[in-house]
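Please review this one.

:::
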Amino acid sequence: MTLRVSQSDPPHTLQVTETRRQPLWPRLFSFAVMANAAALVLAVWVARLLRAVPETDSTEQWLRAAYYGGIALAAIFDGFLLDELLFRGAFRRTHLVGRVPGFAKRDEDVDDIAVSLQRSTWSFPFLLLASGLVTSIALNVVTRDLDGYYRNLGVHLGAVARGDAPRQIEGIRQLSIRRAPEILPALRRTLAAGGEAAPWAAWAIGRHRDQQNRRPLIAPLVAAVREGDPAVRREAAIALGRLQQRSMVGATQEELRRDLDRDAGIDIRLLYALGAVQVTSSKDLLAEVLTRGDAPAQRIAAWAIAQHRDQRGAKDFAKLLEDRLVTADVELRCALVHSLGIFAHEHSNLALVRAYDDSTEAELAFGCPRVSIPMSPDGKEDFEEILMPEDTLALKILASMGSMRATSPEIRAVVEPWLEKRVADTTATLFIQEGAKVLLAGIREGRNDSTRPSVEEAFDQ
């Protein structure tokens, strides 16, 4: 309320008039609405451009700066509005009136003066942070989690699209363990472009084998096998093997043949790929590796042979393992025993009994290790674990015998007395004795001589 003296009135007469100022919050509300609308439009525009992968790093950084700048601008106007509504503009009156143009002092009543004395040092920063957080969350929802997209995908897609070879490779490594529609197109472009990152792109594509539709994965890898340089061709062949693309198994076999002819070490990933594809035409190559490959390659070749258990002529594959068991060292013997257990042909009981009897006590107590196959081009990550579980050779033999049927009279005539000896062997460990006892009981409880096939028929099955 303001007192005013009217000069037209008689002397000593005061005319009291009341003037009311319009509240400031409606104008602040309008500014806040415009700022938030501008931030929304800017966020949608930036999200579209970032998902399209800008051509340069500088453009990407400017876009991100514009995105967060829009959030900051909206938060400032929201903070002023909330300060006006909740604290009657305490921050504005205390820190801006008389100091900042546009916030000039006007006539103030007693309440205004009281408000200007309130402490607003902590209230306004809190309002700014709260406003910025709410605005950021809202824009993130509208832009379909732009922040998360950039952290998990955008930064790596940008590295693959624009970086040098080390940055591209690191980006591919990160994308290989993520799943999003934008990833495969980026990997395909990198594979088609060639260069140091192309083998890594082939590996990463093969690592997406969990996808139900594998067609988008197969075509670029097939093209790389046919047209790529040697390094790309090898990685593409291995990737196709992991994807179980039987029509391209010839490329994997050719790569393995090159390693055998060079006699300079075998890429064990090729063996894993052949085990994954499972075609009988791999038999001779795997048999050759089983006899003349290095120690790790022989163990993996044994596992790869066992993966052919469901193929026609599988008994010939099992015979390869049985024959090699006679001269194998203890580590390879572990792999062969494990692989015979996968085949589960009844006739292999005889080879396992012989392997146990021919092994020393130290060999029987040997802990059969698993094999970890690094599938990445540098051999440092993406491990495939095979020959599990780990156990002693003696228990591995019993476990493999347990997976086979000992039903025919000829086989039981050898297996049952042998198991009885293991049960009665006081020098054997308790695990061996109990394992032999359980295995023997299982054979006897399931025995029915009148309905069991002959040895040859059981082996063919």
Q: What stands out?
A: The first strand starts at residue 2 and ends at 4. The beta strands are 2-4, 15-17, 367-368, 371-374, 383-386, 391-392.
